[in-house]
Every structure is written in C-alpha cells, then in structure tokens.
Amino acid sequence: MQDEDGQTCDVHSISAGLDYPGVGPEHAYWKDTGRVNYVAAEDDEALAAFKTLATLEGILPALESSHAIAHTIKAAKQRKPDEIIVTCLSGRGDKDVTEVARLLGQEL
Amino acid sequence: MPSSRISQVFEKLKTDNRLAFMPFITSGDPDIETTAQLITELGSRGCDLIEIGFPYSDPIADGPTIQASYTRALDKKLHVNDILNAVSALPTDNLPPLVAMVAFAIIYRIGPEEFATKLKAAGFSGMIVPDLPGDEAASFFEIARKHDLDLVQLVSPTTKPERVERILAAASGFVYCISVAGITGVRDDLPPELKDQLRWLREKTDLPLAVGFGIGKPGQIDMLRDVADGVIVGSAIVRQLEPLNESPDQKATIINQIGDYAAEMLSATRS
C-alpha cells in the first residue's frame, strides 16, 4: 500500500500477521487474473468471529484466521442451510489470548 | 554523444589533479527552503557535485542518521513535487551538477519515463537508485540516457566480479563505490581491502570512481588519493542539521558551519 509518491503507508491491524503494507506477488497475480476473489474484514468483525468460534466450538482461531471466520459467517447467511463451506483455519489463537483479552478489556 | 555535465566535472578535476568532493543532503530536513539554501551554499563553496536525497519511507542502505532525516522530512508531508519545484526554482546552470538519490519504488510509482522527464526539467544531471539492482537496470538506463541523465551505479565490497561487469554496462557519470559491507554513517577509518577493490575496478572501467559510506574526515580523503576520483559525504553533513529541528533560529549559523566543513573537505581534495 503506497501513497501517490510511492511511500509505504503506515498500516494497522489487530492481527500482527496482517499489520503489513504489502502483499505477495502470487496473491497479486491471482487477484489480477480473477482466479481468487479477495475480501476484507474489519478489526471488530474479526474479534467478534474469534469470540463466536471460541464460544460455539471451543476453538481459539488466530486473529489472522479470525478474519476468514468473520467472512465465513457473513457468506453463510447468503447460502442454503445444506450447503457446505470450507474455511481454512490457518493458525491457532493461543498466541493471541493476551491481546484479545486486552482488546476486550478483560484481565487474565 | 556529448559528454555529460558530470563527466565534464571529472575531466576538469583530472586536469587540476584533485579529487571530487560530493556532499549529500536530505531534501526537506528541516524544510525544503533550508534544502534550497544549502544547495546554494554548497555550490558557492565550490563543491563538485551535490547529491539530493529524496526521502523514502523504507530506505535500504541508509544508516540511522540519514534514515532519521528521511523520517523527519516525511513526517512534515514532504512530496516529490516539492523537491522538484524547489530545485526548479534554483539557477541550476550556475550550480555544480545535482544528482538525485532516489528509491526505485518512487520512480516506479510515478512512472520511469515521467520521472526522468520531470527530473531533467527541474535541472538534475543524474540519479542514483540504490534499490534498483544494477544488473537489472538496462531498460531504465536507456530511459535515463534518452533524457540526458546519468545513471550512477553502486558497487559494494561483496559485489561479485561477474556482476560488476553487468552493472557497469548500465552505468554512467561515475561509479559509486561503497566502502564497507554495511550501511551509511561516519566511521573512523577505511577498510584495507577497499584499495584493492578500487584498483581492480580501475582496470574494468573508464568511469570515475567515487567512494561513499563512512567518509566524513579530511584525513580519509588523503588515504584515497591514488585509488579514487572522488568522495561522497552524507551523514557527517546531515547530522549537523539535526539541531535545526529544535532550534530553527540557528539556521544561518548552521548553514555557514556546513559551508565551512565543505571548504575544509575541499581543501583536503587538493594534493
């Protein structure tokens, strides 16, 4: 992500792994060729998805993967109940527990 | 092709039996007006060439002094056009050649052709593009040449001989010889292997050899007299400007102090 002079933008995400202004050349190519549809989730949506998965399934997703969960929940509402959606849960959220507690204003 | 302004400077220096002194300054630190005044000051003191740094958010070879100056300038919302406009307003024909030190990320965003056009129109004579790999620079070298701009290439102590040959094929003006395997910043001495590399490079190219990174003292110029054609000094100048961010009223004093420093370095270039 750059400004009009090519300066790297100062970006932010609650997820450390996404707190980065660049994207890999493979993803960029897939987007340009239309092979993959890329969507975004906001910080608060990812946090809500983290809570939902933890509450319903007892699984702590990584904050990175929580973005995917957030979109899965959104996409599922557009689908019939018997349709199956596969979501890649790419990382575990143990590493994020302290940060999530801080964001939710809870003491561990 | 007629010889470029930069080549003419080095031809003259050879006749005068003197090394080139090439100061580097960061645009927009503490502000672009001061940068313009500094260019004028350095020109009036007789500097042979002036390098103008285009602040970049992700510098790759710059040490802490220059990186901090880039950050200060960008925090004040300095844009590429501010630099070009400030240089355009100067009487560049009466100044030593100006060389832009600019990241390829900036050039690529603006468009290589458009950037070269604007740079030439502003009065620059050449550019140094530290993040453009020398052996991938052929097409940009053609663009630079079309716009009558020299493209100065960098060679480091770790550049392999076969790469040096490919890099030199897309180089003009002079060769920027990095003195150390590291980043910019003033050091006390120079590595002993540097002289060997410069002697080797001398056999490979007719381009003048200028040494940068770690140079800041008159004594270092003397060590390079027989093996190089010029020296580049950045951090030793940029750090003198740091106090201006706290005390802008010191501007005239500090500009004069940098002028005195340039004069001292220039007198060391004479044998």
Tell me about this structure:
The complex is a heterodimer of chains A (108) and B (271). By secondary structure, chain A is an all-alpha fold. Chain A has helices at residues 25-33, 43-57, 63-76, 97-103. Chain A is flat and about 45 Å long. With 271 residues, chain B is α/β, with parallel strands linked by helices. Chain B has an 8-stranded parallel barrel with strand order 1-2-3-4-5-6-7-8, surrounded by 8 helices. The radius of gyration of chain B is 17 Å and the shape is globular. Chain B starts with a helix and ends with a helix. The interface between A and B is small, with 6 and 13 residues.
Identify the most extensive interface between protein chains: A-B, 6 and 13 residues
Radius of gyration of chain A over alpha carbons? 16 Å
Strand arrangement, major sheet of chain B: 1-2-3-4-5-6-7-8
Distance between the termini of chain A: 36 Å
The largest β sheet of chain A comes out as:
none
Overall average pLDDT of chain A:
95
Percent in helix of chain A: 40-55%
Compose a concise summary of this entry.
Chain A is mainly α. Helix content of chain A is 42%, strand content 0%.
Helix/strand layout:
The complex is a heterodimer of chains A (108) and B (271).
Chain A: H1 25-33, H2 43-57, H3 63-76, H4 97-103
Helix pairs in contact in A: 2-3
Chain B: H1 5-16, E1 20-26, H2 32-44, E2 50-53, H3 64-75, H4 80-88, E3 98-101, H5 104-110, H6 112-122, E4 126-128, H7 138-146, E5 150-155, H8 161-168, E6 175-178, H9 193-204, E7 209-212, H10 218-223, E8 230-233, H11 235-241, H12 251-269
Parallel strand pairs in B: 1-2, 1-8, 2-3, 3-4, 4-5, 5-6, 6-7, 7-8
